[in-house]
Known about the structure:
By secondary structure, the chain is mainly alpha-helical. Helices cover 61% and strands 7% of the residues. The chain has helices at residues 11-22, 24-38, 48-68, 94-104, 109-136, 145-167, 172-186, 192-200, 208-237, 258-282, 288-291, 310-318, 334-361, 373-393, and strands at residues 40-41, 77-79, 91-93, 256-257, 324-327, 330-333, 396-401, 406-411. Strand 7 and strand 8 form a beta hairpin.
Amino acid sequence: MPVNRRRRASLVDTASRALTERTTLGRRLVAMRAELRSRRVPLHWTHVFGVVTMASLAVLFVTGVILMFAYDPSSELARYEGPYVPLHGAEASGAFISVMRLSFEVPGGLLLRQLHHWAGLLAPVSIMLQLLVSFFTGAFRRPRRANWVLLFLLFVVTLAGGWSGYALPDDMLSGSGLRIVEGIVLGIPVIGTWLASLLFGGAFPGAIIENLYGIHVLIVPAALLLIVVVRAWRAYRIQPPQFAGSGRREDNIVGVPLATAATRAGGVFAVVTAALFVVASAVTVGPIWVYGPSDPGNAGAGSQPDWYTGFLDGALRLVPPGWEFEWMGRTVTLAVLVPLAVVGVFLLVVAAYPFLEEWITGDRGSTTSSTGPATWLRARASASRASSSTRRSGAQRVPTSSRWRSTWVWRR
């Protein structure tokens, strides 16, 4: 009697086949998988900066979630009774005491703190290098202008996350920095007092720790995650940029399969993470026990921000003292407004540079029409040369017009 040796499909196989063959979502997933398998990725050493950024952000997210369970975002004063003898009995906020407990009493707590801090210092470096690579290689032009804006927003949100986390230990260093921030905000005409009250929740220091904690653990991570997801989606929709070479075109990427590129990126990711662990284990950063708890009546003489906000501190120091005037019964402090205006305009120009360059040069990439001052000037110069040639040859001219510039069609 013949035996039927054909293996019966399992319930999982049947459900999977039904999902991929009979539903729109399943068919799209199958098509996406086939496309990803066939996709090629160009290789270049500058791609390492993106992997460093992702590794830094991943370390920030993981260590930040763990640190949340040990940190107390409280401005309420209490007595420090921990094992660090020089500060024993000192009055400090609940935030400072919790960070001291994390550093000296929780196993591995100091390593997590320093790992989180070093990752926060590394992320802005890698993002800035990504911006520089995109700028000098022209990868910010169509159709990747939105990628440039998203990368710039990632940089700004990372700075916001670093600044808000900088103040959370509530030590003397961060307290002095918050005093400077309060002075800058109060120096803004008309709305400065209102903004300071909104940020600090009253007289300094107010509830600044509680307010910054919400920004640091809710707003910043959500914004970072959203920007990363949108950039990944755009990277899937648009072919990656590549340097000029044989066979390399916008519609033909020369490189390795996506799986190979992902494997290499995973190796670099692991190396960056391991390097952060080594640095965090060997190099102390943020020793709050040296600075002591924050005191609203005192300030540290050597207070300075982290390196990525040093340009803001430097802009304030460059302005001469006493640069102010009276206007409508109010004191307008140019020592605050001018640096804020210069930095704000610079950041705005960086964000809008792809659009400004396109408008000035008239280079619209794959589009057929070109507009802008440079295109208008070229058209005027061409018309002037043609006019001179026609006057010499006695030709007849027929004027035509376009949307932004005037041209002349010449015929004999």
